[in-house]
Amino acid sequence: MSGFFSIQRFGAVLYKEFIQMRRDRITFGMMIGLPIVQLFLFGFAINSDPRHLPTLVEVGDNGPLTRAVIAGMQNSTYFDFKGGVAGVGAGEEALRRGEANFVVVIPRDFERDVIRGRSPEILVAADASDPSATGGAVSALNGIVNVAIAETLTGPLAQQAAAPAFSMIVHREYNPEGKTSTNIVPGLLAIILSMTMVMITAIAIVKETERGTMEMLIATPVRPLEVMLGKILPYVFVGYVQTIVFLIAAQLVFGVPFEGSFWAFYLGFNLFVLVNLSLGFLISTAAKSQMQAMQLSFFTILPSILLSGFMFPFAGMPGWAQTLGQAVPATHFLRVVRMVMLKGGDVADVTRELWALAAILLVISGVAMLRYRQTLD
Prior knowledge:
Layout: H1 7-23, H2 25-45, E1 53-59, H3 64-75, E2 79-84, H4 88-96, E3 102-106, H5 110-115, E4 121-127, H6 135-152, H7 156-160, E5 167-173, H8 180-211, H9 213-218, H10 224-232, H11 234-252, H12 262-286, H13 290-306, H14 319-325, H15 329-343, H16 351-371
Parallel strand pairs: 1-2, 1-3, 4-5
Antiparallel strand pairs: 3-4
Helix pairs in contact: 2-13, 3-6, 8-11, 8-12, 8-13, 8-15, 12-15, 12-16, 15-16
């Protein structure tokens, strides 16, 4: 009988595991690639103090003090100055369409009223559908105006300006109470559908390959498109059930409104479900086991959470992260859901996002059909 521990036996097992690791390239790549992706996404995309948020200004006074305030906003890291806007209606529409996070209204005779100690009011209309985007920026704006007053009004003028020299009124649009659930719950639907649709489809198809039933299917004259549609469409029903339960819970438990067009939501939902099911089918063409399918599915979930605007304001992310985020299906569906549920959007308001989802669907399904093998070799 050999000794209690054999270096030779241990070395044989160790050598065998390294060979297996080399053969399982997908798992090895996940072990190396996933930490790197997490490092960059968590290091750069996560930002609890979002900056460079698009801002419009309605100018009612063109004096030196107003110009100093605008210059301060342009130099600030909190605001990405997009120019002026004329009228309340134009500002409201910019907020509703997501073209701006803030509309700052500087009233007429602002500088004169400051000098006379009348404490004029600066109105800030903020898109509060994401409450995390408003707090830091509003505080920064208050400081910018104070600095502009201190630098512009000097000597006797500074003595005439009473303290406080102005007041700031913040109108939080689409979420006046600043409830986090109003922002998180609609976006959560995109994440839930991404997680379940991709993983269920990928694992279900790979399971057939492992059991040998896929070989029987390949032996038939069924075309790749027919296989893909036949495999993914049954799971659309699962997505419908999840969404119905979600919408009921969102309204009854969390009080999240549904202000917009049902048809806009319906079109976006169906496109998004098909995109994720196609992505699951694509993953199944690369995975050789259910474990690999689960690993690759998880790899797609991380960008959906961090790069879509679900956790952090999309406009506050770095430029490269926003570019990557545009390729994430959850980004566009999340905009559809928030536009419809919170801002009363209709089909015309979400047309751009629907076209983006359709384009992503065509690309993913096309690649999946090209990768689908007619043989098991």
